[in-house]
Amino acid sequence: MPLPQASHRYPVTLPDGTEHLGTVFLNQAIDHPRFQAGDYSYASDFEAPTDWASRLAPYLYPSSRERLVIGKFCQIAHGVRFITSSANHAMDGATCYPFPVFDPAKLLEYQPDTRDTVIGNDVWIAYGALIMPGAKIGDGTIVGAGSVVRGTIPPYAVVTGNPAEVRRFRFDQDTIDRLLALKWWDWPADRISEAEEALLSGNIELLEQMAS
Q: Which of 4, 168, 185, 203 has the most CB atoms within 10 Å of its CB?
């Protein structure tokens, strides 16, 4: 089956022919200077917001110094929040109270934490997960519902809990290395459509043949 058009805001068509407004391709629904999402990455929400950027990343402001970068083919469930670096307070003084935010002359210069949050490709972030400032999540990772993710998560890990820990890997290391080498998410859309059955069944040999 052909992929939906990457330029289409609402990629899910219901059986009655109407568009499902609660699921959007992020790079078609978000216009924010600090929020970047790759093709085919989508988010879903039971109460579709008018401002998807603010719903997903409420502390990411146009004046923020950090970026939120999401790769291609990511799947973001209802209730997921990215708590980006602009949310952090300074912790090296006698108080964490952010006095400068109340001074218009200092407000835009005050940001103690400027780390980017970077999500790889083909990452599934399940219901209600929190992605904390500076998190780096590798390609193919699954983030369990309600998890609180900090730090760096390796590719194709399954993480759950608070703080989120690697519970297992989806594949053995040889298979992970082969998938990372394939980078199927960078293939042309028509080739990905042709590879759908192999992708869903995990037929690495066929995928490698298609890549050559």
A: 185
